[in-house]
Amino acid sequence: MKKLLMLLCLLLALSCSKSSPKPPSSPELLFPLKSSECTTGITIGTTNTSEVELQWNASARTDLYEVKITNLNTNLTQTLSTTAITQKVVLDKGVAYSWFVIAKNDEVSQTTASEIWKFYNAGSQTTYPPFAAEIIAPKSGQTVFKDTNNDVELEWVAEDVDNDIASYQVYFGSVSPPTDLLATNAPDNTTVKVGVVANTVYYWKVVTVDEEGNSSDSGTYEFKVR
Predict the structure, then answer these.
(1) Which stretches of the chain are DSSP H helices?
(2) Domain count of the fold of the chain
(3) CA dihedral defined by 214, 220, 221, 224, rounded to 10 degrees?
(4) What's the Cα-to-Cα distance from 148 to each of 30, 145, 152, 202, rounded to whole Å?
(5) CA torsion sign, 162 to 165 to 166 to 169?
(6) Within a domain: 82
């Protein structure tokens, strides 16, 4: 009887010592570089397209990578799967793209994703518009509370291949799309406070302008004040 109890305890200890399956670690993007012009694409025949090789670091506990790359002009996304840490993809020249990689394994359903990077696929241009500003807060559709001064802070980030952002034009109002210019911010100032009224839906967007006069539009975002 004593031997049987010892055997049961040993089996229980062994079962407890087995670690549960873990999700993959996050892939780290390598190339094309973040906020860059990719000049390594191989032209496809006589078309205005080129083949670009995306690269990233291997992530632990990964059986498959899913690569998502989005044409920022059309918002169309290509999804490609590979077991390698590179992926060749045919892209339009002179167009901005965003991309990221999702890591998967066969043991768990949980996946992990890399950061999202943006780049321009080189074309005939010598200068590029800034990437469209990304809204940080308030998120679109979010309900927020005003502060004690009846203000809400708007926040965004922006990137530019040429590193020559000149200003941000912030449009804000209670109609969509917003047409009232709320503020024109310097390139190092990506926040602005705005007076609001409770139980009201507001719309806003950011137009990023560079020193060459190129511009990009974030698109319209909305939030409700409680």
Answers:
(1) 2-17
(2) 2
(3) 140
(4) 45, 10, 10, 18
(5) positive
(6) yes
What distance, in Å, lies between the first and last C-alpha atoms of the chain?
Answer: 69
Question: Confidence band (pLDDT; 50, 70, 90) for 8?
Answer: low
Residue 117 CB burial class (10 angstroms; 0-12, 13-18, ≥19)? buried
Say if residue 113 is in the same domain as residue 152. Answer: no
Name the nearest CA neighbour of 163 among 19, 34, 71. 34
Q: Residues near 197 by Cβ (< 8 Å), separated by ≥ 6? A: 150, 225
Query: Residue 6 — pLDDT band, cuts 50, 70, 90?
Result: low
Strands (E), 122-180: 134-137, 142-144, 151-157, 165-173
Instruction: Indicate which CATH number applies to the domain containing 106.
Output: 2.60.40.10
Strands (E) across 151-226 are located at: 151-157, 165-173, 181-185, 191-195, 200-210, 215-217, 221-225
Can you give the pLDDT at residue 20?
84
**pLDDT tens readout for residues 101-122:** 999 999 999 999 999 999 999 9
Q: Domain check: are 113 and 142 in the same one?
A: no
Quick check: 123 and 203 in contact, CB under 8 A?
no
| AA letter at 175 | V
Q: What is the pTM of this model?
A: 0.84
Owning domain of residue 164: 134-225
* Helix-, strand-, coil-residue percentages of the chain, each rounded to 5: 5, 50, 45
